[in-house]
């Protein structure tokens, strides 16, 4: 690696305290993201009641977070430890590809979850026809194929990957003059299309639930207690929709600041190095929050998580 290349892949100068904090925080995110999402896999595998068509998408979301925690973040931790990127441009391209693939797969999966909940609540009679095992796995195949193709744009001349000397990640370059205009138009069209679909689905869910509750209240006022057989959908369906909406909102909170920064960079605005690092850490946090939401909001996930942890702890107890 010659001097110019070494400079290109070197982190900006930082104090020992900052370097230690970077390593500590990123390592904690790796551990929490890996362990938390692994618990989701084990929970669905062990608990038959969790093996629903909706949870296929939940597991796919956990797969994206698990891959981010085990393939993307460790390379950045190694960079923080060594003070420079040591895997060259090929390695940088690989991390950039993985980073983009995981992000696009996450966004597409959240859109698929929103559509799933919308059809379950708004068009329940069609749900079993649409969400067959074959159709669901075809949807997953489309999600991952799209994610890979969309993230590999630099390999066919639309943009390039670069190493960010402030946050230690390789990703698509957004700076003017290096980013392909076609590439970024396609990227932001895809982003906003997914956001519009998610918002539209949850507005539809909200309106349907509100209208249904008014009908129930009106029927109760006229005829007394309404039997459950007259309900179009159950309380569990609404609870699941709310839980997954919280997951989507938290993803948006983690990614929104970085997304805004990405837009302003396209127009030539410089983002301070420390702010770039903070924004990237909020992005990394998104891979760890979902298991916490499931534990708080879903009793079945909570119970199976507790059983798994208790079983693991008991096996570690020393034999007297």
UniProtKB/TrEMBL annotation:
InterPro entries under this entry? GPCR_opsins (IPR050125), GPCR_Rhodpsn (IPR000276), GPCR_Rhodpsn_7TM (IPR017452)
Q: What are the transmembrane regions? A: 20-45, 57-81, 93-115, 136-156, 182-203, 244-266, 278-296
The protein's topology relative to the membrane is: Multi-pass membrane protein
Localisation per UniProt entry: Membrane
In Pfam terms, one family for this protein is: 7tm_1
Q: Which family does it belong to?
A: Belongs to the G-protein coupled receptor 1 family.
The protein's matches in PANTHER family, at most eight in alphabetical order, are given as:
OPSIN (PTHR24240)
Protein name, per record: G-protein coupled receptors family 1 profile domain-containing protein
Instruction: Give the originating organism.
Output: Porites evermanni
Source organism phylogeny: Eukaryota, Metazoa, Cnidaria, Anthozoa, Hexacorallia
